[in-house]
Design brief:
It is a single chain. The chain contains 11 helices and 12 strands. The protein has 2 domains: 110 residues, Aspartate Aminotransferase, domain 1 (Alpha-Beta Complex); 247 residues, Aspartate Aminotransferase, domain 2. The protein is of the alpha/beta class.
Length: 375
């Protein structure tokens, strides 16, 4: 089956003659983003009225993220990074000696180590081991007990591309006093993310969401918000205006979500770029993008099998994502060799990651396999 791109690679900067298969590391830049910078520059020079329009666009971006994730816009904050979102949770809970956090030993560092300072409080971090590069939801739920405060996972693994069954984890933790925290960085924009299944869902913007660094949308449920104390304060998340005017009072009320997680101004230029990217993604439709990514992943896996490469990504379609990964001793060396033929992938830690998104098609897969056979 020949698969055509959902949008032309010509809509991106610098892809002429390039087979771009590394969105899992860094996405290419939409040409449409050039007009966003020009608009931001004009509004930035427009004083108060210009700034008001910038924040109006920011609120539209919240709405688009809510549409993408299936949650209310008012529950989405803009934090500087996915790591900061997870750490906000780690800092804000009222931890007790004997509490524990459950995650996996194949997790991204910002999820696995957000709890690093909690050992002094007697909090245990349980690193559930993978089994032959596959993380079993049942193993994660088995590790959860009456003292588990947080189950923290990536929806899609940065290392293998496995797409966890978040619905199963949500059902398995519901009513047990456990907060489910999900880093959706490798899922948002390419496979379906149901943010409301978790108590916190956060995602970087510079990969599959087609934006850039500096802003990570973060959903927090009402249940989680009621348990997490605010640990950073500023003019945006406190009710200082108009209640206090110019003079400070001994006490001040906190604002609710989404302002609660935004003590200062978010990176509004990046928010505007994210808004443009979401316009593109939602215009194509997440169902189409999800199907497209899994179809291409199956083609990549089949081709790698024919060439004899050991694929470590799941074979089941439901557990697939935009990332298809295979083991190789010199991953960085193979990445460099492919790049010499204008095929861009991401190689590190003993595996090469092939990322297929909405601007890729079967021709890109064929080109990858052709060059792999040569090098």
């Amino acid at each position: 089956m020949k698969i055509e791109p959902l949008i032309s690679p010509d809509e991106f900067v610098g892809l002429e003659g390039i087979t771009h298969l590394c969105t899992g590391g860094e996405s290419p830049w939409l040409k449409a983003q050039e007009s966003v910078y020009a608009e931001f520059a004009r509004l930035k020079s427009g004083g108060y009225d210009g700034r008001d329009v910038i924040y109006t666009i920011g609120n539209r971006c919240r709405g688009r993220m809510g549409d993408l994730w299936g949650v209310p816009a008012k529950r989405i904050a803009f934090v500087p990074s996915a790591a900061e979102g997870i750490n906000w949770l780690a800092r804000g809970l009222d931890w007790r000696d004997g509490d524990n956090v459950v995650t996996t030993n194949l997790e991204f560092p910002s999820v696995a180590y957000a709890w690093k300072q909690l050992d002094r409080l007697g909090v245990e971090v349980r690193l559930v081991p993978h089994r032959d590069w596959f993380v079993h939801e049942a193993d994660l739920l088995t590790a959860v007990d009456s003292r588990t405060r947080v189950l923290a996972v990536s929806q899609v693994s940065f290392y293998t591309g496995q797409n966890l069954d978040v619905a199963r984890l949500s059902e398995g933790t519901r009513g047990r006093g456990v907060l489910l925290a999900v880093d959706a960085t490798h899922a948002s924009g390419v496979v379906r993310v149901d943010a409301g299944l978790a108590d916190m869902t956060v995602s970087s913007s510079y990969k599959w969401l087609l934006a850039t660094h500096g802003v990570a949308p973060c959903y927090v449920s009402e249940h989680a918000e009621s348990q997490i104390g605010t640990t950073c304060f500023g003019w945006r998340n406190l009710a200082v205006w108009p209640a206090q005017r110019a003079e400070r009072h001994p006490d001040v009320d906190e604002k609710p979500m989404p302002d609660r997680m935004e003590p200062g101004n978010p990176a509004m230029m990046v928010v505007m770029h994210l808004d443009k990217a979401l316009e593109v993604l939602l215009g194509v439709g997440m169902d189409r993008i999800d199907t497209h990514a899994r179809d291409l992943s199956e083609q990549v896996s089949a081709g790698l099998d024919r060439l004899g490469y050991p694929v470590i990504s799941p074979g089941e379609r439901v557990a697939r994502s935009g990332n298809t990964c295979f083991a190789v001793d010199d991953a960085k060396g193979l990445e460099t060799a492919l790049a010499a033929h204008n095929v861009l992938c991401w190689g590190e830690y003993g595996r090469l990651r092939v990322s297929t998104h909405l601007y890729n098609g079967s021709a890109d897969v064929d080109r990858l396999l052709e060059v792999l056979a040569q090098v």
